[in-house]
């Protein structure tokens, strides 16, 4: 228990990126509601980041702006957003519930729309700043004798050090030399083989066959990162662990290991692990990445990344990238929501609350600014999608009520509204209890798994002699 408390404490100390991320997402969402309400002439009483008692705040004109003690969300309180104590609905255009229904739809949609726009702008910014991709050294991997690379004289282990006189340091720079060179044009490759250099001139008609046949050196099956909440995390895998076998089948490369794990979706597998000087087995059940029969299994680990290739884009390219990435992330968010609804007992373990988001935000921040910004964009889209669900209390519930009123051409009664809201509080309250309970349960599962694993012997360290 002491170790678990220490681990929770370290997570809290490293929660800065998560606090900033959640603050941005909540502020943007509530700002959308606030601006739309002001534009429609609805009176805004309070703009709060956080719930519960006031921490600090200031009142300007008719609105109180404040930070509250419980940092689990935020809200914009509008005049007339609930029936009066005597059970009557409010009246007047400045009151939310008596405001014309098209305006209420706009106010409710404005929060999720603000998250959507923010996500798009963030992804455009990522394209301008540069997208980081894991890279590998400028050394060729397995080169079969049937490939164009072999026939032109390249062999496994050759190091491409320059292309047309431009230095090459990574494998992706080799490929980029082909993609960026004008056509038709020959490319001169300077190659080092065991300390001896030679030059290879690739003719225009040879470029495509040669570069498409190049392979990079395979990564060994060493864990470079463990994704929070995934099966590997709960099973106790750690950075630096080497996977020796999968269900008794030895693996020597990352692709071999991934292929074996991918074929065992929803089926427990035994991994033999070497950690330091200790070798032991763990059981892990890969999660089905598609939710369908025959899906690919994933356990949530990443390879060791020694090099990074950064690709920057022009503004038009970044806008196109941002648009396509936004659509892709929206699709991913809604697929995840559908899997959670269609298989709640299976996917509920992967729901995360503030602690989960804080851990994931810290992980993404360690990978780099682009990774952190992409995670920020994804959380914005997840908040958008969640709030648009047609459930009471959520923005989607307000939209449903407003549209229902528009179809009926008659305002809803106070009783109908209150019953609708009570049902929503029960549903959302239950969901939040499940989500919040998952966060500490994940920590407990991981700590138990780490406690079961043998302790690795400490590595010997060379100690420099003291200066005379």
Defining key terms:
single chain, alpha+beta, 4-stranded antiparallel beta sheet, 47% helix, elongated, disordered C terminus
Description:
With about 475 residues, this protein is α+β, with helices and mostly antiparallel strands. It has three domains: about 100-130 and about 315-455, no CATH class; about 135-215, PDZ domain (Pdz3 Domain), CATH 2.30.42; about 225-305, Pdz3 Domain. Helix content is about 45%, strand content about 20%. The strands form six sheets. Strands 5-4-6-7 form a four-stranded antiparallel sheet. Strands 10-9-11-12 form a four-stranded antiparallel sheet. A two-stranded antiparallel ribbon has the order 1-2. A hairpin with a 2-residue loop joins strand 6 (about 185-195) and strand 7 (about 195-200). The longest helix is centred in the last third of the chain and has 39 residues, at about 415-450. It is elongated. It starts with a helix and ends in a 16-residue tail after the last helix.
Short account of what is shown:
The chain is of the alpha+beta class.
Overall pLDDT:
84
Shape estimate: elongated
Biggest β-sheet: count, sense, barrel? Answer: 4 strands, antiparallel
Widest sheet, order of strands? 5-4-6-7
Let me know the number of strands: 16
Number of helices: 14
- Terminal Cα separation, in Å? 46 Å
Helix content bin: 40-55%
